[in-house]
Each structure stands twice: as C-alpha cells, then as structure tokens.
Design a protein that fits this description.
414 residues, mainly alpha, 16 helices
Length: 414
C-alpha cells in the first residue's frame, strides 16, 4: 500500500516560499553544459530517421506503401521497446543501458543502410529491421528525466526543481523534432537517403557514447533504481501522454490532407512546425504555474487546446492555421509536463520504467492519431478530420478531472 506524504502535497501550503528558478542555470549547474549538449544531440538521430527511412524504403522497393509500413514498424518498435529499455535502466543503471543500446542501434541502423547495396529482399526483411531500429532507441529523454529526479530528490524544493527539469526536457524534445527532420530530409533529398541514415548513425554513436561517459561522472546516474506503483493514478498520466500523442498525430495527418490539394501544400511542414514552436515556448514557462495543482493545469489546458484547435477548421486561411498550430503547441507542453511530473511523483526517485511507459504511450498515441485521422479523411474528408484535435482536447480535460478525483498528483513517500 502506498504511504502518502500530505505535507508535500501540491494542495498543502509550502513551509517556505520556493525561490525563483531559472531552468538553464539550474540544470547546467547540476549536470554541466557538456551533459546538456550530449543529451540534446543524442535525441537528434531519432528525429532524423523517420523521413530518411521513408525515402530509403521507397528507393529500395519503389513503393510508398512498403516505405510507410517500414515507418510504422519503426514506431511500433519504439513503443514496444521503451518499457524494456526502462526496465534495463532500472536494473543496470542508465550508463550501462545507454552504452548497450548504442551498440544495438548501431548494428540495426547499419543493417538497414546496407540494404542499398544488396539484391532485392523480401518485404519482411526491411520492415523487420526497421522494427528493430525503433526498439533499439536508448530512450534518452526518459533516462534524462529519471536522472533529474535522482539528482534533486534529496535537495530543498525538490518538487519544484524536478518540474523545472521536466519542462526543460519537453523543450529539448520539441526542438529536436523540429531540427532533426530538417537535417534528415535535406540530406535524404539533396544527397541520398542512405547518406541521411549514415549521418544519423554517426550522430547517434558519438552523442550517445559521450552521454554514457558523462552519466558515469554525475550523481544523475547512481546505481539501481526502485520500482514505481502501477496503479489507476499512474494510468491517468499514461493516458494523458497517449492523448497528447494523439493530438500530434491527428494534427499532422489532417493538416497534410487539408493542404495537399491547395497551393499551400509545400508549406505543410512549416505550418506544422508552429506546434513545436509553441510547445518549446510554453515548455520553458510551465514551471511558473507551480502554484496550480497538476489536475487543474490538465483540465484548463485541455479545454484551451480544444478551443485553439477550432482554428484548424479555417483550413483556407494559412495565417489562421499557423496561429491555431502555435496555440495548440502552447497547450500541449503544459499537458506533457503535467503527465511526466505526475508520473514522477508516483514513482520512486529515478524510476526510468515509469517514465518510459509515458514515452511509449506518447509514441502509440501519435500512431493511433495518425491512423484515425487517415480513416476519417478517407471516409468523411479532411475538414472533419481537422475536428479530431478538438475532441482530444476535451478528453485531456476529462483526464484532468479524473486526476483530481483520484488525487493523482499527491506524491508517495520516498
């Protein structure tokens, strides 16, 4: 049975006013600038690979259907592999886990690239290899979040510092998924898909190997982790992460379908990038909401997301679409931060498995959202599909209400 510590509950007044915390100085002082740089760079390959793999698959087989299947397999592998990597990190420690997964990822990505020089292979071979590439993801984001939990757990104002770190990690994720696809797509189209895959491999090996070395030098990685409670309260935050992933998937797919027949089709990526821009901005500011309990934030920003998503229905106006995407981004970062912060509070300090469950749920949500939007586009048209993020925003608000009833933000004793 969980032991609740009500004095640290967000509903109870703090014993002393928390100091004003600036995210970057706080985290660079705690871990050092090289760690922050390596942690960011280690995420770029994951963002570079999807478009590179899609174009590589089409070049290998001449079929976008097979290429799409490879991309879906890679996403499925990432969702299935995330909890396994989290369990390994809890058992072995993050340094050994990152080093091991770097070797595995290097082998699987090299195999995928080598198909360019091999005779035609059965479809199952590149698809299966793509699944292994996804499964070999080292889950750098979850391991980094777990490390901040370990680092700050025994310090004054630990809850506030961890929340600042969760906001920073959300920003890093968003920036990597804006920069990474640009690098990957540029190399794949200007040079070749194989060149993009090899570049991603080189960045992965250098960045993750550096990160593994730095993990061994800091108390951010200090041995075996405890296990977190798998309970209905945790399920709320896992569900919230899934719903936010669904927002990403539905917006991207429905937006692409809506703009495809218009003169603005080449700007689809630019328009969607406003989601990442809005999320990066709000991610750095979310810690300023520390006086709001997590369920309240989830409820408010879920409703705000639904309202912002209404702007997507004006698909004929590019400026309105950009504003709507930016507004959606401003809302999703506080929701993601609430999900990871809430889950971290329910787990023992540094529990990686719990945080990788949220990562897996987010990836699964992106895939489910993209698939659902695709079916709606085919059956009812793009304008109807553009309404799906509105429903998901309302669902996020409902998750916030459920979290309030279950008191899912009240931490356990550590």
């Amino acid at each position: 049975m969980e032991t609740l510590t009500t004095p640290t509950s967000p509903h109870a007044p703090p014993a002393a006013a928390a100091p004003r915390l600036r995210p970057f100085p706080l985290l660079s002082d705690a871990a050092g600038l090289p760690y922050l740089v390596a942690s960011f760079a280690a995420r770029l390959p994951v963002a570079m690979l999807p478009l590179a793999v899609l174009l590589h698959g089409q070049h290998l087989t001449g079929s976008f259907a097979v290429a799409g299947l490879m991309l879906a397999a890679m996403s499925l592998g990432a969702a299935l592999g995330a909890p396994l990597v989290g369990a390994l990190a809890d058992r072995w420690g993050p340094r050994r886990t990152v080093a091991t997964m770097t070797v595995v990822a290097a082998l699987t990505i090299s195999a995928l690239a080598s198909f360019a020089w091999l005779p035609a292979l059965p479809v199952a071979v590149p698809v299966g290899t793509a699944l292994l590439v996804g499964a070999s993801n080292a889950q750098v984001g979850a391991i980094a979040r777990s490390g901040w939990s370990t680092r700050f757990s025994s310090q004054p104002h630990a809850t506030r510092k961890v929340e600042v770190a969760m906001g920073y990690e959300t920003v890093v994720d968003e920036v990597s998924f804006v920069v990474g696809p640009v690098i990957g797509a540029t190399l794949a189209t200007v040079v070749s898909p194989v060149a993009a895959i090899v570049a991603a491999l080189a960045v992965l090996v250098v960045a993750q190997a550096t990160l593994a070395v730095l993990l061994g030098r800091h108390s951010l990685a200090s041995g075996r982790r405890g296990r977190g409670p798998l309970s209905p309260r945790l399920a709320v935050w896992v569900a919230l992460s899934f719903l936010v992933g669904g927002v990403f998937g539905t917006v991207q797919t429905s937006l692409t379908a809506a703009l495809a027949p218009t003169e603005h089709a080449p700007l689809t990526g630019v328009v969607y990038a406003f989601v990442g821009l809005g999320s990066a901005i709000s991610g750095m500011l979310t810690h300023l909401l520390h006086r709001w309990p997590l369920p309240r934030r989830t409820f408010v920003f879920g409703l705000a997301l639904a309202i912002m998503a209404v702007g997507l229905l004006g698909a004929g106006h590019l400026a309105l679409l950009m504003a709507a995407c930016a507004g959606i981004g401003l809302c999703v970062a506080p929701l993601l931060v609430a999900a990871f912060t809430g889950a971290e509070r329910l787990a023992s300090a540094g529990n990686t498995l719990v945080l990788t469950l949220l990562s897996a749920a987010n990836v699964a949500g992106v895939g489910a959202g993209a698939a659902a939007a695709g079916f709606v586009v085919d059956g009812f048209g793009a304008p109807v599909a553009l309404g799906l993020p509105i429903a998901l925003g309302i669902a996020c608000a409902v998750a916030g209400a459920v979290a309030a009833v279950l008191r899912a933000d009240v931490p356990v004793a550590r």
